Amino acid sequence: MAPELQSLGRAVKQAQYRQHRALDGRLAGVGTTLAQWDALRAISRSPGATARSLAAATFQSEQAFGTLAGRLVAQGLVERRPGHGRRIEHHLTPAGEETLKAGHRVADEVLAECFAPLSEAERTTLLGLLHRLTKERTEG
User: What is the 3-state secondary structure (H, E, C) of the chain?
Assistant: First the structure.
């Protein structure tokens, strides 16, 4: 049983790796990286969020996210604003909004290509199974 599970784990990782490489390569064409675009997405979903919550949302350490956010501020894509107490809030600038939109277009194209071998029903099944795995893992 263990070798089959290892094979499954490796197949998931290979699919993720291929998807990430394709996204990162194509996002360069709109002036961003996958990590930067993912950070913009997280900030867009939670305007005013702290680095701690954004780091968790993007699967990074707080230190790594802080460095990334600093680069996004330097590029004029993100603003850091004082919040309640010592809280620092993150917001997209108009340029950040435009980069995010361009990234969405690229991601839609890349993901359509990545999942093209699967029918719509298979994609729905796969999504349901992955949600089940991540739900059980986070709640269990």
Answer: CHHHHHHHHHHHHHHHHHHHHHHHHHHHHHCCCHHHHHHHHHHHHCCCCCHHHHHHHCCCCHHHHHHHHHHHHHCCCEEEEECCCCCEEEEECHHHHHHHHHHHHHHHHHHHHHCCCCCHHHHHHHHHHHHHHHHHHHHC
- CA dist 85 → 38, 48, 50, 81 (Å): 27, 13, 12, 12
Is residue 140 very low, low, confident or very high in pLDDT (cuts 50, 70, 90)?
very low
Q: Virtual CA dihedral for 48, 51, 56, 62, nearest 10 degrees?
A: 180
Digit-coded pLDDT (tens) for 35-89: 999 999 999 999 999 999 999 999 999 999 999 999 999 999 999 999 888 889 9
Q: Left (φ > 0), alpha (ψ -120 to 50) or beta: where does 76 sit?
A: left
Is the whole model's pTM more than 0.90, yes or no?
no
